Amino acid sequence: MTCRHRLARPLLAAAAAVAIAIAAPARATDPRNDITVTGEKQGDRSDNAPATRASITADRIATTVNAVNAEDVLKYLPSLIVRKRHIGDTQAPLATRTSGLGASARSLIYADGALLSALIGNNNTSASPRWSLVSPQEIARVDVLYGPFSAAYPGNAIGAVVNITTRLPDRLEATITGGNTVQRFSQYGTDAVLPAYQLGGTFGDRFGPLALFASIDHVDSRGQPLLYVTTAQPAHPSAAGDPTTGAYPALSRTGAPIAVLGASGIEHQREDHIKFKAALDLTSAIRVTYVAGLFLNDTDATAESYIADHATNRTAYTGMLSIGGFAYTVPPSAFSGGVYSYDERHWSHALSAGGSGGRFTWQVIGTLYDFANDTQRMPTAALPGASSGGAGTITRLNGTGWKTLDAKGAWKSDDPGSHTLSFGAHGDWFKLASTRYATTDWVHGGEGALNLQSKGRTRTLALWAQDAWRFHRVLTLTLGGRYEWWQAYDGRNYSLSPLLGPIAQPRLSANHLSPKASLTWTPARDWTVRLSFGEAWRFPTVGELYQIVTSPIASVPDPNLKPERALSEELAIERYDAHGSIRLSLFNEAVKNALISQVGPLAGSSQVGTYFQNVDRTRARGVEFAIDRVDVLPRFDLQGSVTYADAETRQDASVPVAVGKLLPQVPHWKATIMGTWRPVDQLSLSAAMRYSSRQYGAIDNSDIVGNTYTGFYKYLVVDLRAAFKVSEHWSLGLGVDNVNDDKYFLYHPFSQRSFQVDVTWKL
After folding, report:
1. How many angstroms separate the CA atoms of 306 and 711, rounded?
2. Cystine design at 194: which of 116, 222, 422, 581 (Cβ 3.0–4.6 Å)?
3. Rounded to an integer, what is the distance from CA 339 to the centroid of its chain?
């Protein structure tokens, strides 16, 4: 099918939806219209960003989203996918229009200006955003900017920028929220009812110029298996080995026959989030704010074997086993590699000052995120004996973290805003400190000999400016640029097995200018047409350069990676009226030296893991249609989006067979739709759908089987929610996620049908 024909379908669907929505009768502005997909209709912003936006507020979250964790609030916004595998998941990266789930460094997430994106890496494990530092109960609104079109943000904004704003009290307030979610999971030999509990509270008050706010949130969850223990079927039958029963025949993602022996990575998580915020108005125009956050995580993961010795009926975990007429050799690490415990204590601090005077606004903010304690313990001996102790490893990320410093201002030349000049300076410092030790007792033992080390730092300094010039009543031209000085240094690697180093890695540096331009035309009061261009340089993260990981999923760095350079364009046509918004966007992105994180056999080994490479050139282009309409029918609201992306490798000297193939984890189609009916003011009933077409994990699309462990498949998930306002102080929510019980894989198996109830009390 030609690209022209592939694009025709979404364009026709978009045109039909536009016609239906425009035909809806006009009415006065309704305060319920609290989610918008718009451009510059949101009012003045200090970053002066000429970008398409999507927003959602606290009221809409409470009535339409089964939100237990902060990342849940994004799941119905256009083109976004959050890889949340279960409640409390600490590894939930964000995928955007043109970037997949393995590209966490291609999006930026902030909470009140503090960076939550863990730009220590570009993966979906340790580099996932720190969503846990925000509880859903404290969110006032979330704004998403699409594309690298604002000079205020670094090149990591290639995909999107998420700005979370939390509440500050104007008077005494308090909330208590309790929730219970139950998932019924059934796959292969695992059949379990998995509960999760959440209890949170907020308290705030204002004392003249001083506002204080505190929140605490506790989550106790049990998740489905994150890993399956599989082994490749030998080439020839054999009668060797101990006869066993219980294994499940399946296919690997490349189509080879395998046996599924069991499940591992079955997590029980206990997490606590504590936050304190204080804001002092020094004058009527100047405010100083301090925010401190503490995240605690205690996670234990276990394994479950499906196989049993045929003669004794004892559960088997290792050895030479006879399964279906083939002899399989199962090493101890097959099961024990998915057994581990995590003990995490992370601190976040942010200090900011901001104000306005006349036509000038300004802000200075410094942030710090510190892995005060981050310890993973894992056995190396065979189960079941290893469950209670024995030899293993201790991996620590203590000392890892980042610091940021930003100063920015915005100045209007006159009241109509003929010129709005914004400018700023930025600095960030990222540090990786990862060490692994042998231990004689992985449960309680102390550190033994060092057997793995990954260390390094990066630093970026930047200056930026942009001017929005309204040179005609209906035309605004925004021009800007960002200049960045980047360095990577103090890189060091050591590995005992395989033997490596210790090696002092080379120092890297790069300086680049990123120009931005946007032209906005408002031909009528309700219509906006915007053509935007942005160049973005995304520098390698310290993890891509230096971090070696061997389990449970191996990862190999490259200390000589180059920055990736993206050229992005968007044409957005939007209508915004009293009913809401309708938007059609055409987007294009070309990336040179694209930093692709992919999954596959590691060089010189049959072991599957992740590795990084600079791909010579990639291109992603497509169309996105988004709608948000209030009272499409009486008391019925509709919001949704459809995105088509043709994202492929255009040139790759390292893997020539990848040319013309889809980029990892960027599907052709993504869609969401939500309808909300309000039969009375105290009740809202919502039904939502999330869809993604087939994805691939390998850059050459060799993973031809999607619906299997380590594969990437399509999914269609239907969610339901009913929200009742019982009284002025009490509200009740009932919901079901994945009501159709779609069983799919995005490398890992994802949650199946889950039932939720939540109760909130407000002072």
Report:
1. 21
2. 222
3. 24
From start to end of 208-256, where are the E strands? Answer: 210-222, 227-232, 242-245, 248-251
**Pairing mode of beta strands 608-633, 554-556:** parallel
Q: Are 519 and 529 in contact (CB under 8 A)?
A: no
How does residue 551 score in pLDDT terms, banded at 50, 70 and 90?
A: low
Q: What are phi and psi of 136, to 5 degrees?
A: -55, -30
Strands (E), 496-549: 500-504, 508-524, 527-538
Interior CA angle at 427 toward 423 and 428, to 5°?
Answer: 140
Closest alpha carbon to 398 in 376, 367, 427, 428: 376
85 half-sphere exposure, CB direction, 13 A CA radius: 24
* pLDDT at residue 15 tops 60: no
Contact 295, 132 (CB under 8 A): yes
Q: Can you name the residues that pair with 231 across neighbouring β-strands? A: 259
For residues 33 and 639, is the Cβ–Cβ distance under 8 A? no
Q: Which of 592, 505, 590, 511 is nearest to 544 (CA)?
A: 505
Q: What is the mean pLDDT of residues 379-401?
A: 95
Q: Look-up: residue for tokens 């906005």?
A: 520
- For residue 312, give both structure tokens: 């004794």
CATH of the domain at 482: 2.40.170.20
**3-class secondary-structure state, position 158:** helix
Secondary element (H or E) of residue 625: strand 608-633
Residue 216 CB partners (closer than 8 Å, separation 6+): 200, 201, 272, 273, 274, 275
- Assign 557 a pLDDT band (cuts: 50, 70, 90): confident
Please, which residues bridge with residue 554 across strands?
609
Q: How many domains does the chain have?
A: 1
pLDDT at 620: 98
What is the domain extent for residue 746?
3-762
> What would the mean pLDDT of 658-677 be, rounded to a whole number?
97
pLDDT, averaged across the chain: 91
* Secondary structure of residue 5 in the 3-state scheme: helix
Kindly state the tokens that stand for 438. Answer: 């042998």
- Whether 461 has a pLDDT exceeding 60, the answer reads yes
Residue with the two structure tokens 């102080």: 729
pLDDT of residue 476 exceeding 80, the answer is yes
Q: What does the block give as tokens for 669?
A: 């189609």
The conformation of residue 659, written as its DSSP 8-state character, comes to B
Residue range 10-14: mean pLDDT, rounded: 38
Where does the pLDDT of residue 19 fall: very low under 50, low under 70, confident under 90, or very high at 90 and above? very low
